[in-house]
Design a protein that fits this description.
Elements (H helix, E strand, L loop, with lengths): L1 H43 L1 H8 L5 H8 L15 H10 L5 H10 L10 E2 L14 E2 L9 E3 L10 E3 H16 L5 E4 L4 H15 L1 H7 L13 E5 L12 H9 L5 E5 L4 H4 L4 E7 L2 H9 L4 H9 L2
Parallel strand pairs: 1-2
Antiparallel strand pairs: 3-4, 5-6, 6-8, 7-8
Helix pairs in contact: 4-5, 5-12, 7-8
The structure holds zinc ion (ZN).
The site of zinc ion has 4 residues, from strand 6.
């Protein structure tokens, strides 16, 4: 009994060994055969085969590489601007790539008042009017309404939603002891034309351009922008008043943003204007309050796609 079972085990062991050897040999042979097969394939079709292994990047791919392939991260990257991005990067080698994309999309790689487009989002609170986006001479916003005279100097008009928002702002400010009054609001194309040409006569084009918009390029023509004072000091001193501090803390809650600041002069093309506010609606104003940026940057990042 014990002997015959040992024999059986031996037979099984030897059988298993033979099968294992056959499998190992078979595998080795098939690997060798495949390698040989591949070699001979390479010999006969070497060019075609190399193309599969080494990718030759296209001109566009090389350009994108220079821009750190940021197109994969930014949904506002514009392929048609790729050469402008590269040229701007060359001129500003230390500038963050994302800023290069934002600034070129704004138009900053070209002079103010060049490469001008019609203002996008006309007749909405998302309109963009600046030195690259202009309004027609006959553009008049719909829904202009007169501001409550308690909160304005003389007869002043704003677009309806901006008018309501401003009156709420001024009323709440007043209840806290702050006087905020609209001194310049909607201005027609013709009015702006006169204003600007008077400044040019006084100061010359170069200076006038730093504080006054050319006709068609003024936010005041949208009915969504206003200059304010505190009823006591000149509006040009508004930045030194406690009302200005109140606006810094509260204007966004009513949908207004401070539009032209000293640090953003290179983007907007205007000097610091602590008195000039623009109605963009509470959502956008809140975002900009929490993530300080110009409306130009906001527009390029979120509205221009
Ligand atoms: Zn203004």
């Amino acid at each position: 009994m014990a002997k015959s079972s040992k024999k059986k085990n031996d037979v099984l062991f030897i059988g298993g060994l033979v099968i294992a050897i056959v499998v190992v040999l078979g595998l080795s042979f098939s690997i060798l055969y495949n390698d040989n097969f591949k070699d001979s394939d390479n010999d006969t079709n070497s060019n075609e085969s190399k193309d599969e292994v080494v990718h030759v990047p296209s001109e566009e791919e090389l350009k994108l590489e220079k821009l750190e392939n940021i197109n994969e991260k930014l949904d506002f990257f514009k392929m048609e601007y790729i050469d402008r991005y590269l040229a701007y990067k060359e001129k500003n080698p230390n500038l963050d790539i994302e800023k290069i994309i934002v600034y070129v999309n704004i138009g900053l790689d070209q002079q103010f008042y060049t490469n001008v487009h019609d203002s996008p989002n006309q007749d909405t609170n998302k309109i963009l009017v600046n030195k690259y986006n202009k309004l027609a001479s006959d553009f008049v916003p719909s829904g202009l309404e007169e501001i409550n005279p308690n909160y304005s100097s003389g007869k002043k008009m704003l677009e309806r939603n901006a008018r309501i928002a401003f009156e709420n702002l001024a009323k709440d400010a007043q209840s806290e002891g702050f006087n905020i009054r609209a001194v310049s609001t909607y201005r027609s194309y013709e009015y702006q034309e006169n204003l600007y040409s008077n400044y040019v006569k006084m100061d010359g084009v170069e200076n006038a351009d730093t504080y006054s918009a050319r006709a068609g390029y003024s936010e005041h023509q949208t009915g969504l922008a206003m200059d304010v004072d505190n009823k006591v000091s000149a509006y040009t001193d508004f930045g030194n008043t406690r009302e200005f501090d109140w606006m810094q803390e509260n204007a966004y809650k009513y949908g207004f943003i401070l539009r032209y600041t000293k640090e953003n002069e290179f983007i907007t093309g205007y000097q610091n204007e602590p008195w000039h506010y623009r109605y963009v609606g509470v959502e956008i104003a809140t975002y900009i309050h929490n993530n300080p940026m110009t409306y130009e940057e906001y527009f390029v990042r979120f509205l221009d796609k």
